[in-house]
Structure formats: C-alpha cells, structure tokens
Design goal:
This protein has about 350 residues and is α/β, with parallel strands linked by helices. The protein has nine helices and twelve strands. The protein has two domains: about 200 residues, Thiolase/Chalcone synthase (Peroxisomal Thiolase, Chain A, domain 1, 3-Layer(aba) Sandwich); about 130 residues, Peroxisomal Thiolase, Chain A, domain 1 (3-Layer(aba) Sandwich), CATH 3.40.47.10. The strands form two sheets. Strands 5-4-6-7-1-8-12-11-9-10 form a ten-stranded mixed sheet, sandwiched between helices. Strands 2-3 form a two-stranded antiparallel sheet.
C-alpha cells in the first residue's frame, strides 16, 4: 500500500499560507532580514528569518500560533472529513540544550488544540527528532493509513531558533552566520504541514516510493572525518524500497543550511552512490536559503515544495529525493514521484 502527499499548509517568513510561501520560494525570495537578535562578540544585530506575526512573543504560545494555520490548511483540504478523525503527527525539535521548544510537547498540543478550536485525533502523536522527524512520521503515517478507518493523516512540523538564548548557544560553536563567520546558518522559524492519503490512480499527487534511515558517527560536533556513511545508508534504504537507481532521481531537496558540513555531506553522497553519469544537471534545492534554518519544520516544507513543483511544472522531473540530518547524527531520506 502506497501513500501520497495531496495538499500542504505553511507559515513562514516569506508567506502566511502554502500558496504564498511556495510561490515566493519558487521565485527565490528571501525572508532573511536584520532582526533584534544580538551577536555579543561582534557587537552587531543578526540577520534572521522571522515570521511577521502581529505581536512579539516566544515559546509554546508562539509555536502554536505558527502551527495552527498550517494544520488548518490541510484539514480544510481533506474532502470534508471530520478533523477529529485525521491523525496529526507533529515533528518537533530534538530535546536541548538549547531548548528550542520552550515547554513540553503536551503543552504545545494543548495550545494547538485551543487555537484550532477542536480536539486532535487520539491517534495523533509527537516526534521530537529535529530535521529527521518528518521521515519518522511518514513511517508511522503509512501504518495509520493502512487502517480502513483512517482516510487522511497530517504530518506537521514547527520550530523556532529566534530566541536570544538559542542563538547564543549556536554562536558559541560558530554555527550562526555572523559578520565574523561565513560558515553558518541564518536562524529562522516556521510551521509546515502536508496532508497524506492512500495513493489513487487519478492523481495529481506526490507518491511516496521509499523511506530510509541511517546513523552518522561523524556529527557536526565530532572530530571524526566525515564520510557520509549515515546519509548513504539512509538514501540506499529509500532507493532500495522504491526500486529506483540513484541516477534515475531527477532532483534533490535537502536541509542544507549554509554550513559547509551539510553541503560536503551532500557532495559525498553523490560521489559514493552515483554509478552512472547523468546527462543533465542534478539539481539540489535547499529551501533554507529563503526560509532560514527551520529545524523540525524542514521535512514537511520540502514535501510541500516537491508537490508544488510537480503541480506547476517546474520540477526537473517527476522523481525527487529528499534527505535530512539532525545534529545528533540521525539521517533520513525519502524518494517520491509526482503522478
């Protein structure tokens, strides 16, 4: 049984809904601007990608405010199915330090239900695995949708790096883009969601072909030489399940965020797995360029971008490889095809 992505919802620094955000993403509009986050070492304000909410606040309340509209977009696209019968698999940042969530998952779920004005399905759950959460959620969604009483499922993610304490924690190991450090990311925040159902022959939809997971020993904080073994294992697992050769993938979407580490890992992946020369350019899309580093929200955002690219005809081809990696060493990949 295969499942497919059929709709999306987004709240980001470049748009308050999926249509606006994905159009801006296609146009390569950046949401990164100078914000009231301070680099004490350089004595300068930082550039970051902030969602333009009507007021400023932090923590659980803000994350719920970002997340509710994205999930509501997906619920509204579910053919009139009662939202209480649609499980929500919520992707969250991995436990700190630093603590990007600002509370507990249970508190976030309660705040989310209050803003939605309706309870979530009892089959809903949270997955606090950072960037790889979405692939773990897809594994669970596939099992849920195999049940006859579950017509739809939502995979959603939310994250924010825009607290001074969080920024300070990433500035210390020189991971944030600053005036004195070009090997870093722009902090961001976002909520993203995708609606899934069992695949149908009538389309249009983004069909999930394969999933893979891996573990990297040479993390970004490690002194070990990076050989991309964890990412290679995840991608090989996804390709094997999909029965797709690496050279038959048309393009890639990844969580590359401006740090040399992630681009090196993506380059090593191609060098290790490409067995046949591709006649055309093998594009690597990195939405973080426009959205800032959005952590656990990157997975559903990448799936939304792939669906939009297929619907509007600007994808290099129908088959896409999405791959992600968390700071702790988890790696994940998904192969999908637009039909």
């Amino acid at each position: 049984m295969s499942i497919s992505v059929v709709a999306s919802g987004l709240v980001t620094a470049i748009g308050f809904n999926a249509a606006a955000c994905l159009a801006a993403l296609r146009a390569k509009i950046s949401g990164v601007k100078t914000e009231k986050l301070y680099d004490l070492q350089a004595g300068q304000y930082l550039r970051a990608a902030r969602v333009r909410l009507p007021q400023w606040w932090e923590g659980i309340g803000k994350l719920a405010e970002l997340l509710a509209p994205a999930i509501a977009e997906c619920m509204d696209a579910a053919d009139g199915v009662d939202s209480a019968r649609i499980p929500v698999l919520l992707c969250l940042p991995e436990p700190g330090p630093p603590d990007r969530l600002g509370g507990t998952p249970a508190q976030l779920v309660a705040a989310l239900q209050a803003r939605l004005g309706r309870p979530l399905s009892p089959l809903s759950r949270t997955l606090a695995q950072g960037q790889v959460s979405a692939v773990a959620a897809l594994v669970h969604a596939r099992a849920l949708l195999a049940q006859n009483d579950c017509a739809y499922c939502i995979v959603a993610g939310v994250d924010s790096f825009l607290r001074q304490s969080v920024v300070d924690a990433y500035i210390a190991p020189r991971r944030v883009m600053t005036a004195s450090n070009s090997n870093g990311f722009f902090p961001g925040e976002a909520a993203s969601a995708v609606l899934l159902r069992q695949s149908r022959p009538d389309g249009p939809e983004l069909r999930l072909l394969g999933l893979g997971l891996g573990r990297e020993a040479a993390t970004i904080a490690s002194d070990l030489p990076l050989q991309a073994k964890g990412l290679c294992a995840a991608v090989q697992g996804a390709l094997g399940e999909a029965s797709v050769a690496f050279h038959d993938v048309d393009y890639r979407i990844a969580d590359a965020n401006g740090e040399h580490y992630k681009f090196k890992e993506a380059t090593l992946l191609v060098g290790r797995l490409m067995r046949k020369r591709k006649p055309e350019r093998f594009e690597l899309w990195h939405p973080v360029e426009s959205l800032g580093e959005i952590g656990a929200a990157i997975g559903p955002a990448a799936l939304a971008q792939a669906l939009h690219a297929g619907l509007h005809g600007y994808a290099p081809g129908p088959t896409v490889l999405c791959h992600f990696g968390s700071d702790g060493g988890d790696r994940a990949a998904a192969v999908l095809r637009y039909t």
